[in-house]
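Changelog note: in this version the structure field was regenerated for every chain. One regenerated record is shown below for reference.
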Amino acid sequence: MREKGPAINFIGGLQWADLPQATRRRAKLCLLDGLGVTLAGTLTEVSKITASYAAFGWRGNEAAIFLHGCRASTAGAAFANAHSANALDLDDDAIFTRGHPGAQLIPTVLAVGEERCAGGQSLLAAMVCGYEMAIRIGRCWHDHHETYQACGSWGSVGCAAAAANLMKLSPHGISSALGIAEYHAPNALMMEDIAHPSMVKHAIGWGAMTGVTAAGLAARGYTGVPILMEMEKYRAWFKDLGDKYWMDGGVFYKEWSSCAWGHAAGVAALQLVKKHGIKPEEIKKIRVKTFTEAAALFRDLPSTTEEAQFSIRWPLACLLVDHQLGPEQILEKRLSDPQVVNLFDKIEIVLDQEIDQLYREMKGTDLRMHSAVEITLQDGRCLDSGIVERAADRWDEQSLKDKFHRLAGYVLPASTVEKLIEMIIHFEQIDDVSELIGLIS
């Protein structure tokens, strides 16, 4: 029978009580990070557009579209909130996925959870279920598909798994939900979005919507096709479900609002600037050495926040001027800043074979990325960072609280931000997610 197997059993049976302490803690930190970036993401135009459309095109009262004062069907709210979650490119990455799981999973479980008046323990368990399945499905997906597909593809299946867990579907219903989600998953070509940055960004909204819809259809008897994890070559990747929790050490939180492929360049440049006390006006030229995918990021002066995020040159120029990279640096109102534009024009991006080989060797199995930066000064000195790795995962509870404060503080009063943090850190004690939703509707 198709519905038997470790993945179906894991999705159908996982509960809060089953989770190791480290995984419980990680789930709450993922929620803290994911909700913070979602709330800040409501500042963007794509958030406003998708909220307006979801309230119109997916009419309903099942779930809130955060901070836009409207509601929609469960799938519609997940769609809109997922767009907000990825709108600033500050959401998490995860091992094997080559992309963003949290921006899809957190809007999914919050929307389904609100519809079902679920409590904190149920939502956190569903989140863990979704992350663990997304990581493994993502690994299968990238191995199976010759063309690099973006997050909404494998994310559809991860979101279906999270929704199925929360909805307590039968084994047959779970199998159907996964098969429906995989069949209807968007064929989102990652490098096309990289070449032409726009609001379609990795099809993340569609991944959440597809997963929620798949679970809802399966609950009503709609059936799906066999999925990748049922292939013999992939079964071993699911046997450790419930024993090995990849999300414990395999989720990477982001400090900077831009594509992670460019972060190592930012680390390298800031190290040189701080070590030598370099001021922006002292810089004559910057040469960034990187790998193929990063070298393909948008090269021109950005005119939208999406173009700014999918760039190395713009984020790097902002970092060297402000020493930070968030909504102030990446939203449209900053894109004509003459000081940043002047530094942007001095940055050259080149493909480096040694760095490219490092990326080939660990692509998809590791979250480390490398770059090197050479800064030539007006006085003729040339400073070389050497090959530098993207910053290690330095995040703990306090640093994620600080990030939440910073991001949610753009859109909410300080008192509300404090309530949300306290609620999330003790989320397992919440009886009904509407307690949280009421603060961000």
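Spot check on this record: Strands lie at 63-65, 70-72, 93-94, 251-252, 283-290, 347-351, 370-377, 382-384, 388-389. The first strand starts at residue 63 and ends at 65.
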